Every structure is written in structure tokens, then in C-alpha cells.
């Protein structure tokens, strides 16, 4: 074996190593063609791929002497039409050498296309005429996957000798090119499988998010919008020149990992009972028990009257009015929007002391113990037990995501997704982590989760807040140690909020925002 051949074999090995390491498909395609040209001393070449099993698409076109570089990661795209593998008649398209090789899976080595009779070279001849070129020798090789299905075609033109003279492709060059084609097929197939798995997992993540959003009208499109804000803020932080983020940069893999976490951040809500997720009043379980209290008060009103005879109509109306007013006040408390005062607590004790007689003749309190405890909820509609169940969705998200065998590039999905309810002061949940214990991506998700909920205009239980109102509340939360101060300042300074608002908020919500009026905001 001569030294030149050994050198080419070593070069082929190095090409194989480089191809297996390349993760960017356009770069990989270009690298395959360039390596093939180098190994065979070909002046030009084309790399095709089969798309939809019926069309042969141009991926990369290169010609050294003409300075042509199209497709791949070159700046100029390819405008040539794809070659059909099936004719309008339904027959296989065996007319061009590239389509023949794609269909038959055979290598074709031609010394001079101008003397070849078996194929239609009108495309090559038109190319020659347009660029004043002379295509002569041509080597066309199929790229086959593990199942021996043709996935593409490698075509090389005009092999040259040491003096630059065009010569036929030798058996040695053909063998090297076929070896390279085999390595290229493996690299392309692996990259295709990786991309398909990535697309599948991405679609699965979005399906889970969509299922959570559809589980309850009270979450609107929360799981679909949190990833949007997350990625906007992450890109702003990664691109920022501010001293706060001088050591923080994210690459394509990091962005995909964070976006995946954002799509799955509320997956634990799949285990949260609907009556807790949708609890819009204090007495709501499967239904709102305020109606039971209304029925009891109606019953009490008439029970207090039947003890008397010949009751004037005015007394009946007065009794009805008294208990209806009691019901209205209980109804207001039940909504959970008012600030619960001592007067409200005293009022509920008075109501509970009232009794009514059942059909069986037993005396029962107007409010059951559970109803009394729920109506005494000081803020919101969830009692302590229900709030624990609701907050447990974050721990459940971590548990569910920890079960998945994430690859190395997605190892931090569980950490990012599970940390969106933690606080910078360590008073969050589920693990009471402090700012120092939380990564920047996890802190980003915390802001995204809160801002989406504040600004959402599709919740049936609340009126949509304006942009300035949402930012003002977010500012108070920064001051209270709830969210990361540096990311909050970046969110305002770079107007990430406005980019999101223009795409997802209603025009009525987008009001004038004065940065000087946002609590806790620091410009520098």
C-alpha cells in the first residue's frame, strides 16, 4: 500500500470522526460534500436528500473553479427545483443519473457525460452553457441508512490530477467516496433520529402543557405563555452587557433545556384535583355550597313565621329581607375578594349560632364546621389543607420529571421546572430554596410564571390587569424578596414586558408605563 493511499485512508478516518461529532445538519451536509471533493480531487459536486420519499432535494451545491457555494450553511440558498422520483405516468423516474441512483441504490461512474447514452443530462448541459463550464467525469453514489434504504445521493464532477487536468474517477477514488458515503449516511441518519426524537419530545411537552391548560378554564393558556416570557427574558439575560449578567451566557442546547422546563413546569397539576384548581369561592368543592346556605336561610325565614298565626304580609317580607341580607353578606365573604376583617369573623360567629330544624326535626347550626372554617379564610379561597395540595404540584412536577431518563443536555429540566415557586428569601415552595441556591434559569421561570398570571386576560375569576398594574405588583414582589432583583430590573430595563404584551395582551391592557413609578426598579 503506497503512502498516498495510506494518507487518504487516514484522511477518511479523520473525516468520519468529524462527521460523527457534528450536530448542526446544514454544516454536516456541507462537510460531507467538501470532504468527498477533497478525497477524490473533484472540482464540484452536489449533495441531495430524499424528502417525503418522492422528491430528491438539492441540499448543497459546490464548484471550486467557478466559486459556487450554495445551500448547507453557505449564505446563498439553492433555488433549483427538486427532482421527482416518480413521473406523472406513475413510473419510476430513471431518466437522470441522480434519480436513477436514488431509486436503484447503485453507484454510477461516468468518464464523460457528453458521450453517455443512458441518462438525460440536459440539466448539466444547461449548467455548462450558463457558466461556460465543461462537465466531464461524474461519480454518483447512494447514501443508505441502517435499513439499506436510500436517504440521499452524493454526486461528484470532474476529478482532476496533480496538474489540474480533468480525468475519470478512478476505482480508488470511487472506493474512498463510497466509504465516505457510508460514514455520511450513518452521521445523517443519527442526526435525523436525534432531531426526530427532539421534535417528538418537544411535541410531547407541548401536549402536556395543553392538557393542563384545558383541564381548567381558570388557568387559561398559562402553560403555553410561560415558555414565551421565559425565553424572552433568558435571551435578554444571555445577550446583556450589564455587569449583573457578565458571566451568564446560554447556547442553543441551554435554550432548548430551559424551554422544555418551561413547557413542563406545571406538569404536577395533572395530579391536582379540579375542585381545588378551579376553586373560585371559599365554599366551593364539587359545587358552591353557598346555595345550601341560601336554602337553609329560606327555610329559617319561614320556620320563624309558621310559629305565628295570621301573620301580616309586612312581617313575612321583613323576615325574608332579614335573611336575604344575611345571605348577601355571606355571599360577599364567600367570593374571597374582600379584605377579611374582625367584623366579618364576628358576623360569621353570629350566623353559625343560628339554627334551623331539619325535616327529621333535629336542630342544626346554620353553618357547618367545615363551612365556617372555609368562610373564615382570610385571603383568597383556599384553606390551609387545600393550599398545601395546590402547592404540592411543584413537588409533584419535580417527582414526575425526575422519573424521566433525561439525556445529559436536559439534566436540569427538573431543577428549572420545580423552582418556579421558590422565593429569593427562602420562603417559597416546595424546598424553601434561597436566591443563592437557585440557578438563573430557575429564577427566570419564577418571574415568567408570576407575570403571566398577573397580566392574563383570559381568567374567568378576575378582571384583566393593565400592564402598569401588573408591573407595579411585580415591583412590590421584588421588594418583598419574592423574585430576583437583577432579573426584575432587566425585565423592565430591556422592556421584555412590552414585547410580550404586544403579542399576547389586549390593546386595552397596554397602557403607558412610567418606569419611575414601578416599585423597586433600579435603572443602572
Automatic annotation (TrEMBL):
UniProt superkingdom: Bacteria
Keyword annotations from UniProtKB, A to Z: Hydrolase
CDD domains from the UniProt entry: HDc
Top EC category: hydrolase
Listed EC numbers: 3.1.4.-
UniProt-recorded Gene Ontology molecular function terms: phosphoric diester hydrolase activity
TM annotation in the entry: none
Hydrolase in keyword set: yes
Residue span(s) of domain HD-GYP: 304-507
Alphabetized InterPro entries for the sequence: GAF, GAF-like_dom_sf, HD/PDEase_dom, HD_domain, HD_GYP_dom
Protein name: 3'3'-cGAMP-specific phosphodiesterase 1
The organism of origin for this protein: Hydrogenovibrio crunogenus
Amino acid at each position: 500500500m503506497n503512502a498516498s493511499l495510506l494518507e487518504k485512508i487516514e484522511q477518511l478516518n479523520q473525516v468520519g470522526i468529524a462527521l460523527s461529532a457534528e450536530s448542526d445538519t446544514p454544516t454536516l451536509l456541507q462537510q460531507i460534500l467538501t470532504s468527498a471533493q477533497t478525497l477524490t480531487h473533484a472540482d464540484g459536486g452536489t449533495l441531495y436528500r430524499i424528502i417525503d420519499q418522492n422528491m430528491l432535494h438539492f441540499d448543497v451545491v459546490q464548484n471550486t473553479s467557478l466559486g459556487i457555494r450554495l445551500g448547507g450553511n453557505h449564505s446563498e440558498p439553492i433555488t433549483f427545483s427538486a427532482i421527482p422520483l416518480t413521473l406523472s405516468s406513475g413510473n419510476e423516474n430513471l431518466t437522470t443519473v441522480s434519480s436513477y441512483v436514488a431509486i436503484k441504490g447503485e453507484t454510477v461512474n461516468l468518464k464523460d457525460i457528453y458521450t453517455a447514452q443512458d441518462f438525460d443530462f440536459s440539466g448539466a448541459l444547461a449548467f455548462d452553457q450558463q457558466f461556460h463550464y465543461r462537465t466531464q467525469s461524474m461519480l454518483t453514489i447512494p447514501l443508505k441508512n441502517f435499513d439499506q434504504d436510500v436517504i440521499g445521493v452524493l454526486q461528484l464532477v470532474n476529478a482532476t490530477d496533480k496538474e489540474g487536468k480533468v480525468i475519470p474517477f478512478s476505482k480508488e477514488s470511487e472506493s474512498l467516496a463510497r466509504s465516505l458515503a457510508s460514514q455520511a449516511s450513518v452521521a445523517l441518519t443519527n442526526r435525523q433520529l436525534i432531531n426526530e426524537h427532539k421534535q417528538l419530545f418537544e411535541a410531547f411537552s407541548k401536549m402536556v402543557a395543553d392538557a393542563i391548560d384545558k383541564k381548567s378554564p381558570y388557568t387559561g393558556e398559562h402553560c403555553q405563555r410561560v415558555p414565551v416570557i421565559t425565553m424572552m427574558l433568558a435571551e435578554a439575560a444571555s445577550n446583556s452587557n450589564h455587569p449583573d449578567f457578565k458571566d451568564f451566557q446560554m447556547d442553543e442546547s441551554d435554550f432548548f433545556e430551559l424551554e422544555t422546563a418551561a413547557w413542563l413546569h406545571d406538569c404536577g397539576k395533572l395530579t391536582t384535583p379540579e375542585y381545588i384548581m378551579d376553586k373560585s369561592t371559599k365554599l366551593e368543592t364539587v359545587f358552591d355550597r353557598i346555595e345550601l346556605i341560601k336554602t337553609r336561610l329560606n327555610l329559617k325565614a319561614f320556620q320563624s313565621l309558621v310559629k305565628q298565626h295570621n301573620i301580616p304580609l309586612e312581617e313575612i317580607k321583613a323576615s325574608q329581607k332579614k335573611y336575604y341580607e344575611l345571605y348577601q353578606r355571606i355571599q360577599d365573604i364567600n367570593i374571597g375578594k374582600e379584605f377579611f376583617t374582625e367584623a366579618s369573623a364576628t358576623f360569621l360567629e353570629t350566623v353559625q349560632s343560628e339554627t334551623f330544624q331539619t325535616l327529621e326535626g333535629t336542630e342544626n347550626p346554620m353553618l357547618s364546621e367545615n363551612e365556617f372554617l372555609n368562610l373564615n379564610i382570610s385571603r383568597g379561597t383556599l384553606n390551609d389543607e387545600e393550599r398545601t395540595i395546590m402547592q404540592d404540584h411543584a413537588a409533584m412536577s419535580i417527582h414526575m420529571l425526575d422519573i424521566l431518563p433525561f439525556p445529559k443536555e436536559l439534566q436540569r429540566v427538573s431543577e428549572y421546572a420545580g423552582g418556579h415557586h421558590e422565593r429569593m428569601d427562602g420562603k417559597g415552595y416546595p424546598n424553601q430554596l434561597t436566591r443563592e441556591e437557585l440557578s438563573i434559569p430557575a429564577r427566570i421561570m419564577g418571574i415568567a410564571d408570576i407575570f403571566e398570571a398577573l397580566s392574563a386576560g383570559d381568567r374567568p375569576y378576575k378582571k384583566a390587569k393593565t400592564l402598569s398594574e401588573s408591573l407595579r405588583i411585580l415591583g412590590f414582589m421584588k421588594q418583598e424578596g419574592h423574585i430576583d432583583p437583577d432579573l426584575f430590573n432587566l425585565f423592565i430595563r430591556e422592556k421584555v414586558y412590552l414585547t410580550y404584551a404586544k403579542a399576547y395582551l389586549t390593546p386595552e391592557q397596554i397602557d403607558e408605563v412610567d418606569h419611575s413609578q414601578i416599585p423597586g426598579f433600579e435603572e443602572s
